[in-house]
Amino acid sequence: MAENVRELRPRAADSEKITINLGYVDLGHIDLLVQEGFYSNRTDFIRTAIRNQLDRHNDAVKKSVERHQLDLGLRHYSRQDLEAVQAAGEVLHIQVLGLASIANDVTAELARQTIASLHVLGALHASPAVKEALTDRMR
């Protein structure tokens, strides 16, 4: 990239884009609150609403995470991690609430040999070949 060119909106590494449909009246209410200065934009309103709901259900979420034995946050699996699992003759049962990422240099064959099951609540970042190889192991 040239020195005088800047990327205006780089993709945030810690977020995932979603799309929602809202009724016109709800959207109008949001726009009114933005116009009145309660929120900086629609996204700010929506993020705040989501965080408020997550806070409201915080105890239930904690109990569920514990009950399902989910890893919370970011969990990255490198090629070296999976090769060590393979060398030990073991397999992984991956359960993540947040972001699970599998390194780009992990082959589909290595993923199939070392990942017995995959349950991700949030987002999975992996190559298309690895995602395809694990389709039958995802919940």
Automatic annotation (TrEMBL):
Signal sequence extent: none
UniProt lineage: Bacteria, Pseudomonadati, Pseudomonadota, Alphaproteobacteria, Hyphomicrobiales
PANTHER family named among the record's database cross-references: BLL4998 PROTEIN
Domain of life: Bacteria
Protein name: CopG family transcriptional regulator
A biological-process GO annotation: regulation of DNA-templated transcription
InterPro entries: Arc_rbn_hlx_hlx, RHH_8, Ribbon_hlx_hlx
Annotated Pfam families: RHH_8 (PF17723)
Matching SUPFAM superfamilies: Ribbon-helix-helix
